[in-house]
Amino acid sequence: MSETSFDAVLRDFDTFLDRERNLSPRTRRAYATDLRQFRDFLGDTAEPGRVEPDDVRAFLAARHRELHPTTLGRKLAAIRSLYRYLRHTGRVDRDPSAGIRAPRRPDPLPRPLSVDDCETLVEEDPAGRPDEAHRRDRAIVELLYGAGLRVGELVALDVRDVDLRGREVRVLGKGRKERIVPLPAAARRAVDDYLALRRGPGYQGEPLFRALAARGRGRLSQRSVRRILRERARRAGLPGRVHPHRLRHSYATHLLDMGADLREIQELLGHASLSTTQRYTAVSAARLFEVYDRAHPRAAADGDGGARRRGDGEEPDA
């Protein structure tokens, strides 16, 4: 195959990911970038059927100093997915990435905000903001924390997806799997206050959260939501980096702290695997140790605080 035919393979693979795998545009763009980098590393004469395992190892090794292990793992996953597709369609008879292990990834615990910090973030009320912008931003925070949505799920919502009377929101999650998430009273009030400014003919089919520029008023982007949260947290004086997924972590951890069942939390978050949700049990345990160390009169009796109970000397998750 020529370099041009390698490009044709990548185009066919992208079409397959879109039509058959239902991957999001963001994931497809990431895979396309990774595979173009792999093609460029192999050179102009690269042919998919002649790639060797050593070529894949060399590609990953050339980038291991500059990239996070998670990113390297994604690049290897992109190559594996490509070759599964090529084998399935009969274009190659072997997978050069088979048997190559992904770089070991650190698995830091999620870092939830405290309940008080979440309350501060919600209640932050800057003076002089346009009314619609203020109501929209408050509704965004209430939904991220009150319903545990991913930022991509949040910005994909249309007005019709929110059922205020039914106290629920219909969410399209990863793999285009739909789930229903209950809405707490505070989130319902915030969304209702925001939509009160917009109700009119046809508004049910509009994006729930939209940009407020003079022209367009299209769907709000994920980048804009991150910026809104970052600025809101800065004005509120909250420590650390506050991003949408941190509010999702906070949602899950606070539910677990209040006695929610782990499988129920799995359903609410839309996790395909319970093992993903189980990470929050470790977070809650770390938080309990912190409370004990700060508050119990016998906590420092041995002179080494919580490290003696965790057994590994690690600092508790903040």
Please give a structural write-up.
The chain is mostly helical. It folds into three domains: 3-88, DNA polymerase, domain 1 (Orthogonal Bundle), CATH 1.10.150; 115-272, Intergrase catalytic core (hpI Integrase, Chain A, Orthogonal Bundle); 279-310. The protein is built from 14 helices and three strands. Strands 1-2-3 form a three-stranded antiparallel beta sheet. Strand 1 and strand 2 (168-172) form a beta hairpin.
Secondary-structure blueprint:
Elements: H1 3-19, H2 25-42, H3 53-61, H4 69-88, H5 115-123, H6 131-147, H7 151-156, E1 162-163, E2 168-172, E3 178-182, H8 185-195, H9 222-236, H10 244-257, H11 262-269, H12 274-277, H13 279-295, H14 307-310
Helix pairs in contact: 1-2, 2-4, 5-6, 6-8, 6-10, 10-13
Please provide a brief summary of the model.
With 318 residues, the chain is mostly helical.
